[in-house]
Structures are given as C-alpha cells and as structure tokens.
Write a structure and sequence with these properties.
Structural class: alpha+beta
Largest sheet: 9 strands, mixed
Strand content: 15-25%
Radius of gyration: 24 Å
Shape: globular
Number of strands: 18
Helix content: 25-40%
Number of helices: 14
C-alpha cells in the first residue's frame, strides 16, 4: 500500500506537467489560429482612388464572348469538353477537391491530356488538400505524372497556427488561350454531374470564350496573370510531385482505372470530345469583362472585392439584385449596404432560407442578425426551393452581370482569396435575370424578424425543434468568432 501511494505521489507531477503542456499546446493553437484574424482592415485610400468605374462598360463588343453554366450536369459536360480540347495547358484552381464519380471523370480526362503532352497545373486550398486528398492514391496517380503539378495554397502547419485561417476560395479553369470557366463550384459530386440526387447543391459559373487567342485585350490573360501570382507564392507548396509514386502498385491501379474510365467516356459521350463544337454559337457577345480580386496574402485582407462590388452597384440607374448563399456582416458592411439602398431604391437580396441552406454556422448567425440586415432597407428574400443554392451573382441594371466565388460574409470579405467577374452583356444579363427571378418566385419575402410574405404555391420548409434550438444557442456562442465564418 505504501509503495502504491509513493508511486502516485511521484507520478503526479509528471501527469500535471503533461496536462499543462497539452493545455498550453491547445491554447497556442486556438489563440494562434484566431487572434491574427480578428481585426478587419479598412479600405485603403489607394483602393478607393484606383477604382475606375469607366472600365466596366465599353459600349462595343470585344474579343470575348460569355455564357452561363447553370446546372450541375452542364458543369460536368463543360469540364469534359474544355479539358478534352486542350492542346498546351490546363489550369484548375479549386477550393475543395474530393474523391467521387465526377472527380474521377475529371482526373481521367486530365490524365489523358497529360499523356498527350499538355501541361496540367492544379491549385487547391491547403486545408482541403490535406483533408480530402492526402493519402489517396487517386490523386497520386495524377500528381506523379511528369506533365502534372499539383500545389496546395497555404498547407496547414501546426507550428505556425497564425497562418491557418488564410484560405484560397477561388474556383476557375483556364484552357490554353481559348476559354476559361469561373464561378462558385467546388470540384466534387455535390456541385458537378448527376451521379447522385440526394446530396447536391445548385451553383453557377460563367464561361468566357476568347475569339482571338493572342489578343491581350481578352480577360483570359488577366485571370492567367492572377493565377501565376498565386501559384508562385512561397506558401503554395507541391503536393507529392515525386514521380516514383507512379511505381507503387495502388497508384498504378488508380492510373489504370482512370485510363479505362477515359475510354468509357469517349464511347458514352463522344459529342463532348468533338472538336468541331463551336463556342461562338453557344455564347453571347460581350463588351468589357473585368476581374475583381481580393489580396492573395494568407493574412487578414483589405475588403477589396466587397468595396468594389458596392461601388459598382451604387452606379446602377434602375435596379440591383444580389444573390448570396448566406449573409454575415459587420458594421462597415451594413453601412455600405445602407448607402447602396439610398442610391438604388430597387435593391434586393436573395439568400437561402435557413431550412434550405447547407451552412449551419452562417444560418445561426443570420437568425441572430436578421433585424440588422433588414435595417439596411434592402428588400430581403429567403429562397425556399427545397435545395441549397450556392451561387453568388449580382444583376446591375440590364447590362452588367457579376458571377464568382464571393459570399456576402466576413470570411469572403476579410480572410479568403475571392474572385468575381463583371460582364457587360445584355443577353447574358437577360439569361441570368431569368434564373434569379425563378429563385425569387420560390422565395418568401421577409417583412420583419418574424413575418413573411409567402407566394401561394410555396410551402415553407420546417426545421425540427432541436435544430431551431441549436441555431439559437450556436448563434449566441459564435459571436466572438463570427469574423471567421
């Protein structure tokens, strides 16, 4: 008995020290990961003075044409078609890439193009790459190819937690000097293809076709320059470039599977690999096309995209319609939205109803701050069409359309890299208006914190009691950290 007591006394300081070290490490990670991102940088005077509104309308057609890619099925088709046409270079930048049927199809075509000598560059957010791609031979089958390089933007390192919140939220594809695709879709089955009908989300992209390759007036080269600036950052690190991985048996199996899958695609969808496809006949004439981008540093960012969007919207003569999956604002953002409403009385905002959306955290915050959004005076609509809509778009009058990755929230404004494309085209605007009007028709108009104007055909979704209680509790708990959502 005395021996056991003595052993406990001797062991106690060791256990205490280990617990202390673990607690210190946890606090180090938590504080380090959050503290540097609590501040919200202000818009600099150089950003204000350097924003030239005249660049967004030129009144005449340019060398670019544009079209909307609206459905998940068309998103899959467009990727097959674009990648299959590549002769020299493919760029794929995505926030999130996961294994799945659509991803296998994409990798199959990319592998085929790499075998044909096309240089393939893939850029993925670091956290997504670590969680979704690390340890999976499916991705090694591609990364080990000599003509393929995959890099991760800001791969997590627990020894530098102050970098963890810096993420790349961009989603775009560039093929040769011919075309690019830009929008809000991530690279997996939830957003691309029709392999499932149970776990999907709607989204939107714009395809831009360059009719004059080599003409530097094309917006393709602006996006290409942006990609190069991010790709060459020191915080973009290679993802398993070691070509010796190709000799591992499981990697060989995955490569063989992708090669067989490509041959199956050729048989089942020959029309997607027909190079006579005329993008000119499937796109609209466009005038100015301009890229809006946040700073690409991994630390807290000046809210460049938010500021530029509100400045652009303030110039509207008739109407502004904003579609965002969710809304999380601070005082500065509320102030800018109030100013927008004063300048453009017909300003509407459509977001997912919480019963319809897929972001629990943002829904919790929205319910807590709904009154503040209403206080901006903007007409607020909650889309309740039965499936989450992840699209991010803006209609400005009858000629400007904005499509991209930016959510109307604090993370997109101050933390993440973000891209929005502004397209001058009445035809494209008209098509986008049709999609947005269909959303509005399936939306309930918010009258105040509790009451709605509900279309006769719409039966509002209902959340179970436990979920409503969880939203309320979580909405309170996250308030000190809402800048990170």
């Amino acid at each position: 008995m005395k021996t056991r007591i003595r052993k406990r006394i001797l062991d106690h300081p060791v256990r205490f020290t280990l617990k202390s070290l673990l607690l210190f490490a946890l606090l180090y990670l938590m504080v380090g990961a959050m503290a540097p991102f609590f501040s919200c940088p202000e818009v600099r005077e150089t950003t204000v003075s350097g924003f030239d509104l005249s660049k967004f309308r030129q009144g005449t057609s340019g060398c670019d044409r544009a079209g909307i890619v609206e459905t998940n099925e068309s998103a899959w088709e467009e990727r097959m078609r674009l990648f299959g046409r590549a002769k020299e270079r493919i760029v794929l930048a995505t926030f999130d890439m996961r294994p799945g049927e659509s991803t296998k199809d994409i990798l199959a075509v990319l592998l085929n193009r790499a075998d044909a000598g096309v240089q393939v560059q893939i850029l993925v957010d670091g956290i997504s790459g670590l969680v979704r791609m690390e340890g999976k031979e499916l991705f090694y089958a591609l990364s080990s190819h000599p003509n393929v390089e995959i890099r991760l933007y800001n791969k997590p390192n627990l020894f530098t937690p102050w970098k963890l919140q810096g993420r790349m939220h961009d989603k775009y594809i560039i093929v040769d000097e011919e075309a690019y695709l830009l929008g809000g879709r991530n690279t997996f089955d939830y957003f691309i293809g029709a392999c499932t009908d149970k776990n999907i989300s709607l989204d939107r992209e714009v395809l831009v076709y360059n009719t004059q390759p080599g003409n530097r007036d094309s917006s393709l080269y602006e996006l290409e320059a942006y990609f190069e600036s991010v790709w060459n950052q020191k915080d973009c690190r290679p993802f398993h470039k070691d070509e010796s991985l190709a000799e591992k048996e499981k990697v060989k199996e995955q490569r063989a599977m992708l090669e067989e899958r490509f041959q199956s695609l050729l048989v089942s969808h020959p029309q997607l690999f027909d190079e006579s496809w005329d993008y000119g006949a499937h796109t609209y004439e466009a005038g100015a096309i301009r890229l809006l981008a946040n700073p690409t540093t991994i630390y807290s960012k000046e809210p460049v995209v938010f500021y530029q969007l509100t400045r652009l919207m303030e110039e509207a003569r008739e109407r502004v319609v904003i579609q965002s999956p969710y809304v999380v604002c601070n005082d500065y953002m509320y102030s800018r939205l109030r100013e927008l409403k004063e300048q453009v009385p017909d300003t509407r905002l459509i977001l997912n109803a919480v019963e319809n959306g897929d972001n629990f955290v943002a829904s919790s915050d929205y319910l807590r701050h709904k009154e503040e959004i209403l206080d901006t005076g903007i007409s607020l609509y909650e889309y309740d069409g039965g499936i989450s809509n992840h699209g991010k778009s803006i209609l400005i009058d009858e000629d400007l359309s904005v499509i991209g990755s930016y959510n109307l929230d604090l993370r997109s404004s101050y933390l993440d890299t973000e891209l929005m494309l502004v397209i001058e085209s009445k035809e494209l605007n008209r098509e986008l208006e049709g999609y947005v009007k269909a959303m509005e028709a399936d939306s309930r108009k918010v009258l105040d914190g509790k009451n709605y104007e509900i279309p006769a055909h719409l039966t509002p979704g209902k959340a179970p009691l436990w979920k409503r209680a969880a939203w309320k509790i979580f909405g309170f708990v996250i308030q000190p950290f809402r800048g990170l959502i």
